[in-house]
Amino acid sequence: MARLADYFVVVGYDLDKRGGSEGQGRILQRFPEKDWEDNPFPQGIELFCQPNGWQLVPERQPPSFFVAVLTDINSERHYCACFTFWECLDNPQLQKAEASEVDEDEEPGVDQPAHIFAPKSLVLVSRLDHTEVFRNCLGLIYTVHVDSLTVPLETVIGNLLTCVIPIAGGSQPGQEEREENLRTITLGAGDRQVIQTPINDSLPVSGSSVAQLFRQLGIVNVLCLFCAALTEHKILFLSTSYQRLTDACRGLLAIMFPLKYSFTYVPILPGKLLEVLSTPTPFIIGVNSFFRSETQELLDVIIADLDGGTVTIPECVHISLLPEPLLQQTQTALSMVLDPELEIADQAFPPSSTQPSALKILDKEIRAVFLWLFARLFQGYRWCLHIIRIHPEPVIRFHKAAFLGQRALSEDDFLMKVLDGMAFAGFVSERGPPYRTTDLFDELIANQVARIRQEEACPHKVMSHIKELAERLFKNENPYPTVAMHKVQRPAESPNQAHPQTRPPFPILDEVSVQLFIDHATAKLKTAPPVVKAELKSMVPSGPPLGDIVDRNSNALANSARRLEVVRNCITYIFDNKMLEAKKLMPAVLRALKGRAARVCLTQELNQHVLQNRAVLDDQQFDYIVRMMNCTLQDCSHIDEHGIAAALLPLVTAFCRKLGAGITQFAYSCVQEHMVWTNMQFWEAMFYSDVQNHIRALYLETEEGEQQTNSGQQVGTGGGREVLSALELASEQSRLWPTLSKDMQTERVQKEESTVFSQAIHYANRMSYLLLPLDTSKNRLLRSTGLGDVESVSNSYVTNSIAGSMAESYDTESGFEDAESSDVANSVVRFINRFVDKVCNESGVTNEHLKALHTMIPDIVQMHIETLDAVHRESKRLPPIQKPKLLRPILLPGEELVMDGMRVHLISDGREEATGVMGGPPLLPAEGAIFLTTYRLIFKGTPTDALVGEQVVTRSFPIASLTKEKRISITLPMDQFIQEGLQLRSCTFQLMKIAFDEEVASDLAEVFRKHMHKLRYPQHVQGTFAFTVGQFGKMAVEHKAKDKNQSLKTLSKNLVKSAKRTIGRQYVTRKKYAPPTWENRSSLQSELDEDEISVSEEMDQSSLTLSSTIRSSDRQTMSNVVERACCRDYQRLGLGTLSNSLTRSKNEPFRISTVNRMYTVCRSYPGLLIVPQSIPDSTIQRICRCYRQNRFPVVCWRNSRTKAVLLRSAGLHAKGVVGFFKSPNAPTSVPSQADSTSLEQEKYLQAIISSMPSYSETSGRNTLSGFTSTHMSTSDSSDKLRQPKIGALMKQVMGAKEDMPGTFSRGGKWGSIRGSGRLSAYNPDVGNRLAGKESPQPNGGPSEALFLRQQKAYLYIIGDKAQLKGGKQDAFQQWEVVPIEVCDVRQVKNSFKKLMKACVPSSSSLDATMSFHRCLEDSEWMSLLHRVLQVSVLVVELLYSGSSVMVSLEDGWDVTTQVVSLVQLLSDPYYRTFDGFRLLVEKEWLSFGHRFSHRGAQTLASQSSGFTPVFLQFLDCVHQIHLQFPMEFEFSQYYLKFLAYHYVSNRFRTFLLDSDYERIELGVLYEEKGEKKSPQVCKSVWDYIDRLNKKTPIFYNYMFSPEDEEVLRPYSYISNLKVWDFYTEETLSEGPSYDWELVRSRQEHTAEETQEKPDTSAPKSRRQIVWPCYDSLSRVVPDAITKLLQDLQNLEAELGQPSEKWKETWDKIKSAQRTEAKLESRSSISSSLLMSSNLSHQRRSQGVYLQDPGVSSSINLSLDCEVSATSTPVAGRPSTSTLYSQFQSTESENRSFEGILFKRGALLKPWKPRWFVLDKTKHQLRYYETRQDKECKGVIELAEVESVIPGAPAMGAPKNIDEKAFFDLKTTKRVYNFCAQDSLNAQLWMDSVQSCLSDA
To answer: CB count, 10 Å around CB of 1736?
Structure first.
C-alpha cells in the first residue's frame, strides 16, 4: 500500500522580494509540517510551480494544471501536481510599492492598472503518477475555496493526505469488496473517485501519451529519438504547454520498456536552471518554447519541437539507427497501426471503416510494437548470462561478445552501444536473476520468440500479434474499464470578471486540525494487520537458444561441409605424421579457416588430441598446429564474438614440443600477436564462464541423484544445455536458500568464494602465458597492442561518450608510453592486477584473498619469465622454419643498395599469366625480399607454391619510373600476419603488390617509403641515378631482424651529406642564377597574351643571357655546337654549312644562323638554326615574339627530290594568329607594333616559299608541271593516284564531322584557287571534291577540268583548330592553314594512366564487361596514336607532292616533335638506320627541347605535373610503322623497347633535362667527348647501344633490305594498329631484359651453379618447358639466325679461335648471297636466305591506295602482262589470266615454284636465261626477263600442256651442263625446250609441272 499524496503545499508570490527584475515564489504553508521518515520533502518546489518565472499580470488568467517530475538523490521520482490560479493583490500594498518606485516627475497621465494579479499554486507531492486523480483532487479544493462550500478545507486536505491505495496488483476475486473500498476515495466534499491501479507495476503506465507523441512528431522522428535515447544522446523537448512536455517525456520512457532510463530526466525544466543543459551526461529534458533562443547554441543536443513536429539533429551528432531489417519492419508495423488507411488507399472499393483505434488503445498498440521490437533485439539474451555467484545473492554478468557473435551483428553500431549502455546494465541486474517474479516481457522472450521469428516477414500476422499484446497492456493499465465513477464538483461559472476584487484570497489553513487527521490515520494503520501481497516468484524461463537464427542471415559458406572435411583430414594427417599430405592440404585449410564453422571444427578436432591437458608434438607438427591456430585467430576480432579464442585458450597451453633437457615450448608462445589477448573484456568473459562451470559443478556434487541424471551428461565444451542448467541450478538454489540453516548458508558462501579465488589464480597464470613475449627483452608486443592502463569498458557503467573518449586514449595513455624505461614484466603485472581487482570485486572475493592475489601475481610473472628465457634460448637454436633464404639481386656497376632486402610477399595482381589461372603452376604469390637501390626497386624470391619452389621470381623497375604508390592491407592465405602492403606502379608497365612480412618492423616499411620518395623525386636532376652513379657513398640502411631503434635522424643526415657530395662544387657555387621555371614563364606569358605580344622585352634581360658557363668568346664551345648532331644532319641534307652562313653566299636558299648561340632568342631551341638566307637575325628576334615560348618556325628537313622543306614551330600567341591571318589590307585602328611584326612574319613565310625551286620555276604559272595532262607518263601515274589520297587524308585529319567557322568549308580546302576568272576562293565544292566527296572519274581522281584549273599551296601550315578560329584565309596568299585537332598533353597523361591499368591491372576484375579490350578502348591510347600517325602521313604526302609544310602546334615541343620526327622517319630512309634514328632523336627531341624531365616528372619540382609519355607515344608510332614495313628498318623492335624503357629509367643522362641550354648549364652536353673518368659507366644511351650492338645482334633487324629513297605510308586506322607487346610482356625469371649486364651476369651465374652440382640423375630429356610470362622467349627460343650466330660463337670459343664479330659474319653471308644472286643475274640480295622481298615491294607500291574504295579497281599491274602474252585467247572465252587478273592477291601466294631456266627461243633464236614462275592458282607458267621484272614476257597456259618429258641438248645450248638437265614441254601449239642448272633442278621442275597438271 502507498500514500496517495505525501505533501500538500501552498506556494505564493513572494511580495517581500519584488525588488529584482524577476519575482520569486515562496512556500506559504505545507502539510504535514515535518518530513515523513521514508520520504523527505523535496527542495525547490517553488521554482517548478512557475517554470517561466514568477510574474504579476494585469488580468486574471484561467487556472492551470500540470505535473512536474523531480528526482531525488536516490534517483526516486517525485510527481508534483501544480494547480495554479491568480489572486488579486491588496491594493494599498500595491500603491505603496508603486509610490516608492515611480519617479516623482513621471507624467500623471499614464494609466496604472487598478488591480494586479499574482499567481498562487496548490501542489501535491506524490511518489505515484496518477495525473487525473491529482487534477480532480486539487480542482476540488479550489472549488471548495472559490464557491465557499460548507466543507472546511482542512478536512478535505486531511482526507487527501491520509488516503492510502494499493501500488499494483489489480484485484483477486476473493478480495473484491476490499479492493473496491481501497480504490474508491472520497475527500469528504460529496465527491467520489475510483483509482485504477495497474495489475503489474513493472509495466509503465502511459495513458495516451505515446500516441500523442507520435501524433506530434511522426514515426521517423520518434524512432530517431528512441534510438538516440537508447544510445545515450542528449534529448531536449520544446513546447509551449507544460503538460505536453511531461506527456512526451513519459511517452518516450514508456516505449523504452523493458529498459529503464537512468540519466537526468526533467520533463519540465524551470528557466532559472537552464545551465543544466550544458551538462556532459546524457539527458531527457523538456523546456518551454519561451526559452528556445537559449537552446540554439547547444552543439550536441537533439532538439524535438513538439508544436512544430520537427527533430533537429546537430551535425556533430551521429545517431546509430536500428539494424536492418528491424528498422524497416518496425516502421511498417508503426505505420499500419497509426495509419491503417494507407494500405487500402489505392483500392477501388475500400472497406468502410478503417479508422485507427481510439487514442488510449492506439497508445497500447504502439507500445506493443516496441515490445515486439525488443523481444526481437534481445531474444536469447538469457543464454549469454554468466552466473558467477548464487549465494548470498546472485551475481550475474552478460557475455556481450557471444551475444553479438551469435546474432552476426558484431559490427552493428546500435546494438554495441545499447549493450554497453547503462540502461542495459540495469536490465541485466534487474532481469538477470533466475528466480524472481516475471512479467509480460519475460513471457514474450520465453514463449513467443519462435512465433515472432516465423511471422516477422508477414506484416498482417505481426499486426495480429501486436493487437494481442496491446490488449494485455491495456488490461494491465485499466483492469476495470467499466468502473469509471467520477463525481467531482467543478467551480460554478461565476461572473468573476465583473468583480475581480470580491473573491477572497486562499485562506491560511489551520495546521493543527490537518495534523490531527494525519496522526489519527497513522495510528489506525499501526493497529491494522499488515497487508501481505504474496509475491509470485518463479524460475525465469530462458526461451529458445540463439544458435539457429544466425544461419539464416549470416553468409554461410555454401560448401562448408567439404571445408570441414578438409580441416579434419589435415589435422588427422598431422597427428598421423603424414607431413607431405598435410603440406598439400595446408593452403586449402588456411582458406577454409576464414569461415566460422571451420574454426569451431578446428578447436573441437584439436581438443580430441589432448590427453590429460597435454599433447607433445614434434617440430613440424608443432609448426603446422601453430600456423593453423594463428590463421584461426587472425580473422577473429578483438572481442572474440564467436568464442574461437576462448575455445583455443585451453589448447594453447596444452600443445607443446620438447626443445631440450627439461625444456618445453608451449603453443602460446607462438600465438601472442593477436589483439584479442590484450582485450580485458575477453578475459572477463572467459573468467566468468569458467567460474560458472565450476560453481555449477559445485552444486551438482551437492545435489544428490535427481539433478545428476538431469544434466550431468552434458558437460560439453560450450553446448547450449550447460548454460541453461547453470541458471536452473541457480534458480533452484535461490528457492531453497531461505530454508537452509545459518551454518549451511555460510558454508555455501565460503565454497563459492574459494571457487572464484582459485579461478582467479588460474587466470593470472594464463594471462601471463599469453601476454609475456617469448623474448622478454623486447617490448615490441606491448607497444603495438592496447594493453593500456584503461579500465575495461565491458560492464562498468560508463556512457558511450565517455567510453569513446577512453577508447581513443588507449594509445595515448597506455601504460606503454614509457615502455622504453619500464620493462615488460611490470606492465603485464599491472594488466593482470587490474583484471583481478575488477573480477574479484564483482564476484565478491574477500579482501584477504584479494591481497594474497596481489602478492602472488608478480611472482607468477617472474617465474614465467624465467622459464621463457630458457625456452627462448633453446628455440633460437632450432633450425628456422623453412622461410626461403633471401636471394641477393645482381647489381649494375655503380648501382648501390640503399636499403637491404626486406622480407616481403609479392602478391599476384590482375595479370593472370603468373597466377596459374591460365594453366601452368602459380608463380605468384612469391616470397622473397624487396631491395631498394639507387637505380631500381627489385623483388627477388621464390614462389610459395611448393611445385615451383625452385624457380626464382624477379620483378624490378627503375625507381625513376614509379608513377603511383599506395598503401594497401593484404591478408594472405598463409600463416604469417601481413602487417601492411604497398602497391607500386611503374610506367615501364610493371606493378608490384608487396606485403611486408611480420619480421619487418612497420617503421622500417615507413623508412623504405621515405627513401623511395627521395630517390624518385630528387631535389634536382643531379640527384638522379645517371648523375649519382657510383658516388652514392655507403649509406645502406641495415636492419637487424626487428630493431626499431634505427634512428631516422642519422639516416637523413647521411642522405643530405651524400646528396651534397653528389651535386658537386660547380652547382653549389653557381647559386645566384635561377632561370624562371617553365611553368612560371608560360603562365606569365599567358597572362600578358591579351594585350601585348612582345613579352620578352619586358622580361629582365639579365635573366635571359646565359650564365658564366658559355661566353661568346669561347670558341671551343662554338666548335662543339657545330659538331652537334643537328649540324651533321643539316650538312647531309644540304641545308647549308657554317662557313656558308658566315660568308653569306646568296645562291643557297638557307643558312645556318647563330642568332640563338647564347640561347637568348629561344631558350628551348638548339644554338644553331636553319633559316631562310634572306632573313637577317634582327628580324628573327622580332618574329619569335609571336610564337609561344619564342619557338619561331625553323627548317628541320628538306626533301631531296622536290626540295620542299619541313618546318617546326610552336603555335602562335592568340593575338598573333588573328592579326596574322586576317587580310593584310584590313584597316587597323592602331598601327601597333604587333602589325609590323605580323608583316615581318609574312615576309619570313614568303622567304621560305620562295626558297622552293617549284615556286621559282612556276613564278606565276598557275598549273603544276605534274598536272599538265591527265594522260601522264607512267612515272607520274603515282601522282595521279595520290591526289585524291591527300584529299581523303585531309578530310580525315581535319575531321569531316564538324563545319569550321569562317572559310574552312567541310573538310578544309585543298589548294587555294587564285586568279580573277577562276573559281572563287570560297567555293566549298573545291574542298569537297578534293576530299573525294564526288568522284567524276571512275578511279576517284578529280576530273581533268579541275586539275587544269587548280593550284596547290606552296606552304601548308598544320595548326591547332582551337587556335585558328576566326582566322581569315586570303585568296592571294601563298600558304594555307590546315586546322587539326591536337591531343592535349592532359589527354595523353590520362590515356596513359588508363592504358597502364588495362595492361597491368592491379586486381583481377570481377566485372566481366571490363575486359582487357574494353579497358584498352576506354583508354583511347590507340585513337591518339591513330591521330598522330594520320597527321604525319598527311604531311608526308604534302611534302612528297612538292609543298612545304610547317607544323605549328601547341608549344612546339610535344605533338609537333612527334609529327615532325615521324614525317622524317617516313620520308627519309636514312632515319631508319641506327645512326639516323639516333640523329633524329638527338636533333628533334633533345636539341629542340622536348621537356623530358618535366614530362617524366623526374624531379621534385615537376612531381605535381605527373608523368606524360609523349616520347613513348612516338616510339609506339614507330613500332606500328615497323610492324607494317619490317624490311625498312635497320633496328629491331627490341631497340624501340630498349629506348622506351631507358627513357624513363634515368640510367643514362641522354633523356634528362629539358633542353640543350639546361644541359650546357649543367655541363653535361659535351662531357661525353672529353672526360672518361669511369669507363664502366656509360652516360649516353647511344654509346651503350653502340657497344652492345657490337657484341650481340639483339638490336639488329635481319630482315633489313631497304629500297632506295622509299617513302613509307602506313595505315593508321585503329584496326591496323596493334598493342605493343612492350606494354604486356613480362619475364619473371630475370626481370626486364633492358639492363644487359644483369642478363649476362645472370647467365654466367646459372652456368656456374649447374657446373657445381654433379649430375647424378638419369639421362635428361632435351625438352624444355617454356612459360610465357616466366622465360625470356627471345633467349629460350631464339630465331634461327640468332641461334646460328650463337652456335658459331660457341664453336669458335670451343676451338679456341678468336671469335669474329657477329656483324662481320653476317655481312660475309650477305655478300656471298649477293654474288650468288649476280650469277643468277638478279639484282636483289639474299632472297633465298630472307623471305621474298616482293612481298614488301608490292605492299609499298599498291597497298596504300587500297583504302580508298574508288581507287582499288584501277590498279591492275597484271593487265600489262596481257599485251605481250604469247598465247592468244580462245575466241569467245576470256583467257584464265584475264579472269584472274581482276583479283589482286598477294604474289607470294601465287608463286608455287620459281627459278631460272634457259629457254630455247623460236626458230633460229638463241637460248636465254629467264625467270620462270609456276602459278598453281592461275594455272599457268609465266616468265620474266629477270627476277625483279614486273612485266611478264610470256605465259604458257597449263591447260594447253599435253606432256612434260626429259629432253636432249639441242644446238646452241649452254655449255658445261649435264645432259639430264634438259626437258621439253609439249603444248597443243608447240614444244618448248628448257634447260635447268643441273639434273636435280630439272627433275624438280618436271615434278612440279606434272603435279600441277595432275591436280587440275
So the answer is: 21
